[in-house]
Design goal:
The structure is a single chain. The chain is an alpha/beta fold. It has a single domain, classed as TIM Barrel (Alpha-Beta Barrel), CATH 3.20.20. The chain is built from 12 helices and 10 strands. The protein has an 8-stranded parallel barrel, surrounded by 9 helices. A two-stranded antiparallel sheet has the order 6-7. Strand 9, helix 9 (215-224) and strand 10 (229-232) form a beta-alpha-beta unit. It starts with 7 loop residues before the first strand and ends with a helix. The structure holds 3-hydroxy-3-methylglutaryl-coenzyme A and magnesium ion. 3-hydroxy-3-methylglutaryl-coenzyme A is lined by residues 16, 19, 49-52, 55-56, 80, 82-83, 85-86, 101, 112-114, 141, 143, 177, 179, 207, 209, 240, 242.
Length: 302
């Protein structure tokens, strides 16, 4: 097996993780979470999104959170921007990277960002151009790359088609997202391979929600074809308000435990990461949704 020697973990807990929380999470807690995540050695953190506060009230404090973070050199702070209005607001917060997010299924595109796939490209194109002009790195995300809550199974060709559109408007890196966690290893490899027809291995990452308990297996399947960048969420937080029933991203702690056990280097300290996960889980008054965190916290207590 030819596995990558190094993996980059992109921590999406503050954004994907918290966007789905019903109870308001104060900006100060979000800022403290980002501080603890960067202290664990994570080098890329998806902080917030500049979307409509009517659609996602939890992200309404985007500018306040971005302004409150004490930035560390070498850490990249990213934000979601669905349109020019969001990008212009985000620009004031000086993100290192922006994310335009589309969907491989028409129905999800409409539910999530209120437009068709073709219309989303018309909205993203000027955002991508403006970001590139401002020297900001542009990532794209492709939702429903395996299955859609409204349309069912999504064929790899549709993922490839969207990846081609994203490439065409200048997106520099693309995430293949299993939004509702229905992917299994071979299906996920097919979605990634369809994407790899348009982007190089260094430009592709996996974003796997763990609704059906497949995300760790899917991560390994992605590693086996050379993918070495993954979005993960501390304490397994997360979900999309427009994908009912979908639970959080694969827990960063679980992925890190697996990678450490395989001798794959990430630069992240598991103990400090577990502390960050415990911090936000305590605030939310629940246990971390991570098997590795639970086991290691039990071990500490014992
Ligand atoms: P729209 O209604 O089509 O937008 O929404 P519009 O341009 O027609 O404007 C309507 C109103 O929204 C106006 O306000 C605008 O000012 C406002 P009003 O005049 O009614 O008071 N507006 C905005 N306000 C703040 N920031 C903006 C913005 N744009 C318009 N950027 C829009 C389109 C995309 C804004 C909306 O559909 C939206 O906000 N959707 C939320 C999408 C979202 O955050 N989804 C979750 C994140 S994606 C995800 O989780 C998936 C991912 O993790 C990968 C995976 O797992 O699949 C990335
Ligand atoms: Mg997601």
């Amino acid at each position: 097996m030819n596995l990558p020697p190094h993996v980059k973990l992109v921590e999406v807990g503050p954004r994907d993780g918290l966007q789905n929380e019903k109870q308001p999470v104060p900006a100060a807690i979000k800022i403290e979470l980002v501080h603890r995540l960067q202290a664990s050695g994570l080098k890329e953190i998806e902080v917030t999104s500049f979307v409509s506060p009517k659609w996602v009230p939890q992200m309404a404090d985007n500018a306040e959170v971005m302004a409150g973070i004490v930035r560390w050199p070498g850490v990249r702070y990213s934000v979601l921007t669905p349109n020019l209005q969001g990008f212009e607001a985000a620009l004031k917060s000086k993100p290192d990277e922006i994310v335009v997010f589309g969907a491989a299924s028409q129905a999800f595109s409409r539910k999530n960002i209120n437009c068709s796939i073709a219309e989303s490209m018309e909205r993203f194109a000027p955002v991508v151009q403006a970001a590139l002009d401002a020297g900001i790195f542009v990532r794209g995300a492709m939702s429903c790359a395996v299955g859609c809550p409204y349309e069912g199974e999504v064929a790899p060709e549709r993922v490839g088609y969207l990846a081609g559109l994203m490439k065409g408007i200048g997106v520099q890196h693309i995430g293949v997202a299993d939004t509702i966690g229905v992917g299994t290893p071979i299906k996920v490899q097919r979605a990634l391979e369809a994407t790899l027809k348009h982007f190089s291995l260094d430009q592709v990452s996996g974003h796997f929600h763990d609704t059906y308990g497949q995300a760790l297996a899917n991560t390994l399947a992605a590693l086996q074809i050379g993918v070495w960048q993954f979005d993960t969420s501390v304490a397994g937080l997360g979900g999309c308000p427009f994908a009912k029933g979908a639970t959080g991203n694969v827990a960063t702690e679980d992925v890190l435990f697996m990678l450490e056990g395989m001798g794959i280097e990430t630069g992240v300290d598991l103990d400090k990461l577990i502390d960050a996960g415990k911090f936000i889980s305590d605030f939310l008054q629940r246990k971390p949704n991570s098997r590795a965190a639970t086991a290691l916290l039990n071990k500490r207590a014992g």
